[in-house]
Amino acid sequence: xxxxxxxxxxxxxxxxxMVGPDYLEVTVMIGHTAGSRxxxxxxxxxxxxxxxxxxxxxxxxxxxxxxxxxxxxxxxHSSSIHEERRHDKETGRAELTGQVSASVxxxxxxxxxxxxxxxxxxxxxxxxxxxxSVSWHADWDNxxxxxxxxxxxxxxIGKARDYATALGATIEQIEHIAxxxxxxxxxASYESRQVLWSARAASRGGPETPALNPxxxxxIATIEARVRCTGASLPE
Length: 236
Fold this sequence. Notes:
Layout: E1 6-19, E2 23-34, H1 37-57, E3 61-62, E4 72-87, E5 94-110, H2 116-124, E6 129-137, H3 145-166, E7 170-179, E8 190-193, E9 196-198, E10 217-230
């Protein structure tokens, strides 16, 4: 019988490498409160126009299918409007204040990481613009990925060799090399761990305004391997 007396060994291993980020994403919330819905919306729209005009002056473009990896892009991706309420201590209910709040979220992506001071200045220049989150990312085709994946394969084979040695066996051939989860399980095959900053930051500086200093990214590749061994015996 083919492969009689052989043993299949399945392992999982990973490798990682710290790299500099390829791009930055900043999400800002533009918010204003006014006495009417129309006025609140008008104020938000005016601030958004001024912000995007400043981004365009830095060479930015709206994010669309043709933007590709443009050095600076922006996208207004959500908005909200609601009537403000305030808790009334006497009635115990939330009472309308007569004010209306409107907001829009704008996601900004920047790739020229050596010039982030100019982006910081733009974000700090507009009343009503609050930095909500800052995150750093590595591209899916970052030049470091092939090396990280290769080291993950080497680590998986090394682990399988350890198991085979413990059983007095010899690795004869590699049956499978796969991304994690393809041979069983549900873990992602590889990922890039990013540093994320989140706060309701003041729009004109202040202690909560983040410094846009590039943070390293942890590239992690996870590999599953299945190897066939021969000569295995139960340890004493």
